[in-house]
Amino acid sequence: MVLRVPEAPESARRAARAVLESRESLPADCQADQVALTAGFPHRVFEIELLDMVADRGVRSARPVGWRWLMWSGDLVVGGIEVRPGPAGDGVGRFVEGPFTVATAPAAAAARALPQTLLRRDEARLLNVPGMYMVALWLADEAGGADLLIPLAPAPCGVQALRGYPAAELADVLAARTRQPAAVGALDR
């Protein structure tokens, strides 16, 4: 499988470089000059409302919101650089960290190992579904076939992290979750 990442706009690349080189916005353990940091695996970031995802519109109705690069110290992902458009159209970058950032590299490895992706050529994207607190690696099939989603850990209940789901199947799983009433603890009597 070929995981393709499109060329980021120059303004986004400049903003990402500025974050990596400044080190002021990085955690203390990454600020020392002797810590070798690299940024790679640039991918576009998309966001979709839960109701749009589970409706007939599907993942292709997600809107692009920026770019993200993973940041490594050696072989370890220590965070990411997220770049969003600024008010003047330039890129505004910031350091991001957390479980979804760290889980992106294992999701990319899982994507390359999926049997159904061996003959595909996909664009690697990140899909944020804030209404479900879910982030997935989105394998957008460039040949027009079914897109695949690989949920990052932690995944919502009923969704298996690092499993490749056809986008329509994952939308059905999430739709079923939205129809379930919220669990309420027993009332004290």
What do you see in this structure?
- It is a single chain.
- The chain is of the alpha+beta class and 189 residues long.
- The protein has helices at residues 10-22, 28-31, 50-54, 99-102, 104-113, 167-179, and strands at residues 2-4, 37-47, 63-73, 76-85, 91-96, 121-129, 134-141, 148-151, 165-166.
- The longest helix has 13 residues, at 10-22.
What are the key terms here?
globular, prostaphopain b, domain 1, disordered C terminus, alpha+beta, 6 helices, 189 residues, 9 strands
Summarize the structure.
The protein is α+β, with helices and mostly antiparallel strands and 189 residues long. Helices cover 26% and strands 34% of the residues.
Report the CATH topology name. Answer: prostaphopain b, domain 1
**Overall CATH class:** Alpha Beta
Measured as a percent range, the helix fraction is 25-40%
Low-confidence stretches: 183-189
β content, as a range?
25-35%
Q: Which structural class do the helices and strands define?
A: alpha+beta
Assign the CATH architecture: Roll
Q: Total strand count, please?
A: 9
> Oligomeric form of this entry?
single chain
Whole-angstrom Rg: 18 Å
Note the topology:
Layout: E1 2-4, H1 10-22, H2 28-31, E2 37-47, H3 50-54, E3 63-73, E4 76-85, E5 91-96, H4 99-102, H5 104-113, E6 121-129, E7 134-141, E8 148-151, E9 165-166, H6 167-179
Parallel strand pairs: 1-6, 2-6
Antiparallel strand pairs: 2-3, 3-4, 4-5, 6-7, 7-8, 8-9
